[in-house]
From TrEMBL:
Assigned keywords, A-Z: Membrane, Transmembrane, Transmembrane helix
Domain Putative Flagellin Flp1-like: 19-60
Full protein name: Putative Flagellin Flp1-like domain-containing protein
Tree of life domain: Bacteria
Transmembrane segments: 24-44
Pfam family membership, one: Flp1_like
Length: 66
């Protein structure tokens, strides 16, 4: 349990240092963009799966329609 706590504190300190340092802002922005894209994926999961299923239904596999 202590190891998990110290790893969490280490990660928190790394994030704080990255935010304070201007060089780390690019990394923070990329991480935020990735998190937003993941959240959008979860929100529209059903629509995405429906679109994928429609596309797979229209595809031909080795000349045989699926």
């Amino acid at each position: 349990m202590r190891i998990l706590f110290f790893k969490g504190m280490w990660l928190r300190n790394k994030m704080i240092n990255a935010i304070r340092n201007e060089d780390g802002m690019g990394v923070i922005e990329i991480a935020i963009i990735i998190l937003v894209l993941i959240a959008i994926g979860f929100l529209f999961k059903e629509k995405i799966m429906q679109l994928v299923n429609e596309l797979l239904d229209k595809m031909n596999v080795d000349g045989i329609t699926s």
